[in-house]
Design brief:
The chain has three domains: 5-175, NAD(P)-binding Rossmann-like Domain (Rossmann fold, 3-Layer(aba) Sandwich); 182-432, Orthogonal Bundle (N-(1-d-carboxylethyl)-l-norvaline Dehydrogenase, domain 2); 445-471, Single alpha-helices involved in coiled-coils or other helix-helix interfaces (Up-down Bundle), CATH 1.20.5. The longest helix is centred in the C-terminal third of the chain and has 34 residues, at 315-348. By secondary structure, the protein is of the alpha/beta class. It is built from 19 helices and seven strands. It binds NADPH dihydro-nicotinamide-adenine-dinucleotide phosphate (NDP). Catalyzes the oxidative decarboxylation of 6-phosphogluconate to ribulose 5-phosphate and CO(2), with concomitant reduction of NADP to NADPH.
Length: 471
């Protein structure tokens, strides 16, 4: 019997997705460049409907047509190497799916190249890590719609299911749309994490709350409007003690250098390329960068003085204010993320369905959260909504929580605790709601030194001021 679908790449993600697909009643062909990995999978899962191959030729032959092949290898050169090996063996109408964390520019180029040979190419964002891959990820596939239809039944079966039973997968759009959406998802994830980390830092270092109590605070927050995977795991993390036996909280033993694999940075890079303000996510990328300068920070901490201001607060009230500030920051971050998606949809001609994106993030992925339903609702009410903040639910959050956000940022700033994403959130909110920004002076400066011209508020046209003429 031929396999219904093939998976290339038997590292953790490919293996788990293959097992997930198999568990839904499909026969899965598997292949990995290094044979041992395939052998290990077969040894560990000999009872499963898996068809192993040890050459690309045999692998392609093992699949029913039109072939559906999911590539789960290291993103970049490895993806091209796999495609180049497969290509001569494929027939027109076959579907290749790249589920790696691929840059959307690469996906657009591959889609165009393969399309010329009649091969369909889907770039699919996969979120949820290795457990998600096994039990139900959130999937963001982009490419030819007709190709999506050929794989949709399988993807819908393996994807996570939201509370209303809907699968966390949908056709995102042509060529690189799926990988783009995954990239912005990862950017949003960076923002969420940094906002949480800043909240933790304030409560710990300003309010002096110990880790056990903090764990309970996050667990409590998770019962309300902040309910989400990241708040949930934060509550759990803070309750965990050293696994090597010192008895200390594990967070206190983890080195404060924030690593990254690049997707958050890509998201910021494209926001810059598109000219869309996405400061909360970008500040979270910078926060990781500055954290990596550990040696410099340690040296600077001995030289650069602290502020000499003092603050006064009620601990219980501060906890609630930080919760409100965190939610306010989250709303600004998502408003920016969705604004980026709107710009991208126009620039790359993708016709993204914003409400649907929030819908497929409700389960399976790292940013899964109760409040995504509010985003779906907002775009369902008004598919052309320019900015989430203009939806009544989000306007109301801004109204209710902005003062807490301001107080928390002021307090942290007074005592010298860095809150880059919380401050960026407030700056964005204030810029966005300001009718007249000081860009009038900026335009005058540009015109002064570079004759860049400006527009006037009282008449149409383009003007240049005679700056160098005596008045
Ligand atoms: P890795 O990213 O560690 O990649 C290892 C796999 O790539 C192995 O199967 C390896 O084969 C294969 N490979 C590497 N170079 C080549 C090459 N030149 N030719 C053919 N195959 C090659 O595996 P993961 O399972 O962690 O991730 C797979 C993909 O999924 C990546 O793109 C990753 O970014 C993405 N992803 C990962 C998530 C995670 O949580 N880990 C979450 C979502 C997406 P060999 O055994 O022969 O070396």
């Amino acid at each position: 019997q031929k396999a219904n679908i093939g998976v290339v790449g038997m590292a953790v993600m490919g293996k788990n997705l293959a097992l997930n697909i198999e568990s839904r009643g499909y026969t899965v062909g598997i292949y990995n460049r290094t044979a041992e990995k395939t052998e290990t999978v077969m040894k560990d899962h000999s009872d499963k409907k898996l068809v192993p191959s040890y050459s690309v030729e045999d692998f392609v032959k093992s699949l029913e047509t039109p072939r559906r092949i999911l590539i789960m290898v290291k993103a970049g050169k490895a993806t091209d190497a796999v495609i180049d090996e497969l290509l001569p063996l494929l027939d027109k109408g076959d579907v290749l799916i790249d589920g790696g964390n691929t840059n959307f520019h690469d996906t657009m180029a591959r889609n165009a190249r393969l399309d010329k040979s009649g091969i369909n190419f889907i770039g699919m964002g996969v979120s949820g890590g290795e457990l998600g891959a096994l039990h139900g990820p959130s999937l963001m596939p982009g490419g030819q719609k007709s190709a999506y239809d050929l794989v949709a039944p399988i993807l819908e079966k393996i994807a996570a299911k939201a509370e209303d039973g809907k699968p966390c997968v949908a056709y995102i759009g042509p060529n690189g749309a799926g990988h783009y959406v995954k990239m912005v998802h990862n950017g949003i994830e960076y923002g969420d994490e940094q906002l949480i980390d800043e909240s933790y830092d304030i409560l710990r270092r300003v309010a002096g709350i110990d880790v056990d109590e903090l764990s309970n605070i996050f667990k409590e927050w998770n019962k309300g409007e902040l309910n989400s995977y990241l708040i949930d795991i934060t509550g759990d993390i803070l309750s965990r003690k050293d696994d090597l036996g010192s008895g200390k909280p594990i967070v206190d033993l983890i080195l404060d250098e924030g690593a990254n694999k690049g997707t958050g940075k890509w998201s910021s890079e494209d926001a810059l390329a598109l000219g869309v303000p996405q400061s909360v996510i970008t500040e979270s990328v910078y926060a990781r960068f500055i954290s990596m300068l550990k040696d410099e920070r340690v040296a600077a901490s001995k030289v650069l003085p602290k502020p000499s201001l003092t603050v006064d607060f009620d601990k219980k009230e501060l906890v609630e204010k930080v919760r409100e500030a965190l939610y306010f920051g989250k709303v600004m971050s998502y408003a920016q993320g969705f604004e980026q998606l709107r710009f991208a949809s126009e620039e790359y001609d993708w016709d993204l369905k914003f409400g649907q994106l929030a819908q497929i993030w409700r389960e399976g992925c790292i940013i899964r959260a109760q409040f995504l339903q509010n985003i779906t609702d907002a775009f369902e009410k008004d598919p052309k909504l320019t900015n989430l903040l203009l939806d009544p639910y989000f306007t109301d959050i801004a109204k209710k929580y902005q003062d807490s956000a301001r107080e928390v940022v002021a307090l942290a700033t007074k005592v010298g605790i860095p809150v880059p994403t919380l401050s960026a959130a407030i700056a964005y909110y204030d810029s966005y709601r300001t009718e007249v920004l000081p860009a009038n002076l900026l335009q005058a400066q540009r015109d002064y030194f570079g004759a860049h011209t400006y527009k006037r508020v009282d008449r149409p046209g383009t003007f240049h001021y005679p700056w160098y003429k005596e008045q």
